[in-house]
Known about the structure:
- This protein is an all-alpha fold.
- It has a domain of 67 residues.
- Helices cover 77% and strands 0% of the residues.
- The protein is built from 2 helices and no strands.
- The protein is rod-shaped and about 115 Å long.
- The termini are far apart.
Amino acid sequence: MSIRPTDLQILIQKAQEVERMQQNQQQQSKIQQQQFAEQLQKQSEIKKQQVRSSTRADEVKIEHKQKDSEKDQGRKDNQSRADGTVEKDNSSENGPKDEPEHMIDITI
């Protein structure tokens, strides 16, 4: 069975169309993969920022509690001075301390 010249021309045109369609499909799949990779990267960046923002909020809470405790300690000192009573300083018994003692108890 031989191919006539007119049939050959039609086959060549169709082959070119099929080639273009396949190239378009390959490009679309590459573009979809790139978009998916970009979305994953954006999501991971968002998650990283969310974790960082929550730790900042915790730091503010801890700092706020420390300031409140310092204010309460200052009030106690002022009240004892106003009453004329003097509280015994425990640091003289245990030796001089340069830094205030802070304890954080964390349970998971």
